[in-house]
């Protein structure tokens, strides 16, 4: 029977506490959870009878719920949904083969949590505002463009130049927001990852890994940044298990 | 806790959760998966799951706000 793996856990004080916790929990489809251990790490698994259940959204949420519950009590590496193996033997071999990398990642995320921060804006409104602020610079484009006034492509070129300039302005503004966020959170020693313009409305998509005891400081710092940008919406989510900060390819 | 900063909307949380559990975290690769089940079946299962999220996003597009589109 196949087994689905939820996470790999650091056994700091032996497997006793983990086994006690697992006895009171259920995995996906109501199946019991148990630990497959190797030295000081353990994979938390449950049996699955039919692989077709992977297509069900509710099971993915159930799966994430198990990881979340374990994360409240243990340092762990979350597995991606769909991590399935055939029996305990290959799982033990996998833990053994990747032992040092797993331990390295577990130490990296020990006593830390992940927070997500999205900065949401109306990009069209923002472009209009940025354009009006830099109206003087834009006039330069008009003068330059007048050199092509006899060209049948004049309107097209002007339009493209304007669009290009607006995109540059927007990306420059996004960079300045990211710089502000980074500067404000620098004192928290947070590891961060940023993505710019994930969609037209999500200006910044970022994740942070920081010490659990600094949670309130993070909330306060983000609140301060929000005050500086009243037209932007800062949305935080978390704390999450460290999904975005485990860098390991299981062999 | 400042609710202006921490948005605890169930909708956002579920989208963020699905994004993480489907796209992040450690994934098993190579012969391990092949030795368990047909690799295409596992792959297909995950892709179908992703499709269902996209479909959910499309259904929500009609009433889309910035927050609605947390998974691209």
Task: Give a concise summary.
The complex is a heterodimer of chains A (251) and B (72). By secondary structure, chain A is an alpha+beta fold.
Detailed description of the structure:
The complex is a heterodimer of chains A (251) and B (72). Chain A has two domains: 2-110; 114-245, Alpha-Beta Plaits (2-Layer Sandwich). Chain A contains eight helices and nine strands. Chain A has helices spanning 16-23, 57-71, 88-97, 99-109, 123-133, 135-146, 154-185, 215-228, and strands at residues 2-10, 33-38, 41-48, 76-78, 84-85, 112-120, 191-196, 202-211, 233-240. In chain A, strand 2 (33-38) and strand 3 (41-48) form a beta hairpin. The radius of gyration of chain A is 25 Å and the shape is elongated. Chain A starts with a strand and ends in an 11-residue tail after the last strand. With 72 residues, chain B is an all-alpha fold. Chain B has a domain at 34-63. Chain B has three helices and no strands. Chain B has helices at 10-23, 31-36, 39-60. Chain B is elongated and about 50 Å long. At the A-B interface, strand 1, helix 2, strand 5, strand 6 and helix 8 of A face helix 1, helix 2 and helix 3 of B.
């Amino acid at each position: 029977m196949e087994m689905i793996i939820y996470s790999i856990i650091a056994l700091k004080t032996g497997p006793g506490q983990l086994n006690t916790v697992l006895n009171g929990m259920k995995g996906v489809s109501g199946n019991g959870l148990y630990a497959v251990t190797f030295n000081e790490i353990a994979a938390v698994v449950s049996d699955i009878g039919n692989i077709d259940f992977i297509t069900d959204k509710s099971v993915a949420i159930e799966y994430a719920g198990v990881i979340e519950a374990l994360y409240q009590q243990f340092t762990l590496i979350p597995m991606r949904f769909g991590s399935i193996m055939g029996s305990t033997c290959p799982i033990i071999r996998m833990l053994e083969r990747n032992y040092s990398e797993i331990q390295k990642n577990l130490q990296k995320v020990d006593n830390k949590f992940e927070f997500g921060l999205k900065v949401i804006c109306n990009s069209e409104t923002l472009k209009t505002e940025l354009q009006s602020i830099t109206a003087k610079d834009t006039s330069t484009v008009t003068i330059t463009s007048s050199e092509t006034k006899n060209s049948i492509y004049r309107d097209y070129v002007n339009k493209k130049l304007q669009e290009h300039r607006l995109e540059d302005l927007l990306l420059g503004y996004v960079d300045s927001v990211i710089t502000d966020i980074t500067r404000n959170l620098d004192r928290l020693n947070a590891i961060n990852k940023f993505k710019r313009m994930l969609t037209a409305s999500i200006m910044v998509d970022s994740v942070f890994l920081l010490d659990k005891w600094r949670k309130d400081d993070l909330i306060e710092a983000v609140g301060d940044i929000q005050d500086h940008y009243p037209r932007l919406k800062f949305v935080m989510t978390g704390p999450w298990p460290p999904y975005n900060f485990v860098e390991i390819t299981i062999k | 806790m400042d609710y202006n900063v921490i948005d605890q909307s169930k909708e956002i949380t579920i989208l963020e959760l699905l994004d993480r559990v489907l796209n992040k975290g450690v994934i098993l690769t190579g012969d391990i998966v092949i030795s368990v089940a047909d690799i295409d079946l596992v792959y297909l299962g995950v892709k179908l799951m992703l499709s269902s999220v996209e479909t959910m996003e499309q259904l929500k597009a009609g009433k889309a706000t910035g927050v609605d589109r947390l998974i691209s």
